[in-house]
Structure formats: C-alpha cells, structure tokens
Amino acid sequence: MLPFDFDYYRPETLKEAVDLYQYSDQQGKQPFYFSGGTELLTLGRIDLAYTEAVIDIKGIPECNAMEVSGDQLLLGSSLSLTVIEEANHFPLLTKTASQVADHSARGKITLGGNICARIFYREAVLPFLLTDSRVMINGAEGKKIVPINDLFQGHLRLNKGEFLVQTATDLSFIHAPYFTVKRRQQWETGYPLITLAALKVNQKIRVAVSGLCPFPFRSSAVEESLNTQGQSLATRIDGAIAGLPQPILEDIEGSKEYRLFVLRNLLLDAVKALEHAQD
C-alpha cells in the first residue's frame, strides 16, 4: 500500500501517453510512467518516490512488441523478464535476466523498468550495451531511435516526459558466443556483488559489468586490454582492471577490494570461455 493517492491512466497510444504526462505535469502532479510498478511500490513505501498521476504504458502495443522485424529483434519495454526468459529469443539476455531477483519478482519486473530503474544494478541493460542495440524513445517531439551506447551513460539519459518504448538488436549478435555470470556474497536470490556479461564478436571479446560501480557500464579500455595480443592473460586482466571507471562500490554487500577480486576471477573465466569460441 502506498502512502499517497494518485490518478491512474492507461493510454493506448504513444501520443496519448505523452499528452497525459504533459497535462499531469502542468497540474503539478509529478507524473510517473508505470510499466511493472515494482520500483514505484518499493520506493514509494519509504518516501523515495512520489506521484499524483501514474501513466501505465502496458496498454501501448509498441511497448509489448516481441518480434523479428527485418534483421532486428524488437523487444518492448513492458515485457516482463519472465516473458523474455520463456521466449528465449536472445540467449544472452535470457540468461542475464534470469538472474535478476527471484522468479516471482521477475514476473513483475519489466525490461524497461529494470533498464531505467534507480537501483544501480540494472543488469538487463548489459546485453544491449554489448550488442550495440538501439532504443526507441518517445516524448513530446515524437519517436526517436538512438544507439543505446550513446544514450546510456551510467543511466538512460531521458529528457523530461520521455520514456523507453522498445529495444532493437541486430540478429547478427543474437547467437554470438556469450558468457554471463552473477556472483552473490550470500544467498541465492540476495543482491549481487558483480554481474558480468561478455560477448565475442568478430574475434573480439566485449564485456559489460554491473554491481562494481554505482552504474552498469561497458568500457572500451577494458575491452582493449582484454583483446591485446602477445601478452599473458594475467597482464591483460591487470590492464583491464586498471582501465575500470570509478568509483568502485564499497558497501554492506562487499568491500572495494573484494569486488575487484571477484571481477578479476570473472574476467579470467570469461576470457577462457570465449577466447577460442567461433563467432
């Protein structure tokens, strides 16, 4: 139960959703786009989120897309992680998403909700960063399609009134060799320490990480070091560690030193798994 009341809207088109947002914003209602609702429910109960107008985008067809269009796989932002997992159109995403929270929660958590969440893990974004996916964004100026690596810098940098509609991933990436692991310090469904996803494309290993920093990331410096020829694996991983963005998280789940220890071992496992794989 949330400690505040709000108006609830369920638009059927992208334009209607934006119009409702603008109208509610003009009324000072601090409108909130809603898909799965887990973040609003969680943060609203502890006074970290507030709205007087919820705009539920689950009724918009584009937000529920799950289809191949031309040479791209389209996935709507309102798809739950469970639906994505069961369909298994994108194995790297399936495996990565299947490690988010527990089975019950994944039935409510949506793709867009995870990618746009305030919580810093946001593991579902990692496969899209690795595959140079594009995202469709809708706002006052209409639809726009942007490379996710341009728009996602620590978080999805949306303008006021914009929301994520769907992702588009080239099919050429879908069945590339991959490696993805989540390491937790404690129980099976506890918060993760590190989630690492890796993909081999054109004989190069790509890596994206969540849980190490206060944001998920893919780093060209890390990848350049891992793919350097003529060096030992230990030297390459040392270079990757040196190229990490900052700061490194240090909290109740694990110290900075422990997180780096876990990451080092995950990088070692990923390179060993993918180095000789044929893409």
Structurally, the number of domains stands at 3
* Overall CATH architecture of the largest domain: 2-Layer Sandwich
Largest sheet: 5 strands, antiparallel
Query: So how many helices?
Result: 12
Query: CATH class of the largest domain, anyone?
Result: Alpha Beta
Q: Could you tell me the strand content as a percent range?
A: 15-25%
The secondary-structure class comes to alpha+beta
Silhouette: globular
| Arrangement of strands in the largest sheet | 4-5-8-6-7
Number of E-state strands:
12
Describe the protein.
This protein has three domains: 7-55; 63-173, Uridine Diphospho-n-acetylenolpyruvylglucosamine Reductase, domain 3 (2-Layer Sandwich), CATH 3.30.465.10; 177-274, CO dehydrogenase flavoprotein, C-terminal domain (Enolase-like, domain 1), CATH 3.30.390. It is built from twelve helices and twelve strands. The strands form three sheets. A five-stranded antiparallel sheet has the order 4-5-8-6-7. It has a four-stranded antiparallel sheet with strand order 9-10-11-12, sandwiched between helices. Strands 1-3-2 form a three-stranded parallel sheet, with helices on one face. Helix 3 (81-87) packs across helix 4, helix 10 (220-226) runs antiparallel to helix 11 (233-242) and helix 11 packs across helix 12. Strand 6 (134-139) and strand 7 form a beta hairpin. 33% of the residues lie in helices and 23% in strands. By secondary structure, it is of the alpha+beta class. The longest helix is centred in the last third of the chain and has 19 residues, at 256-274.
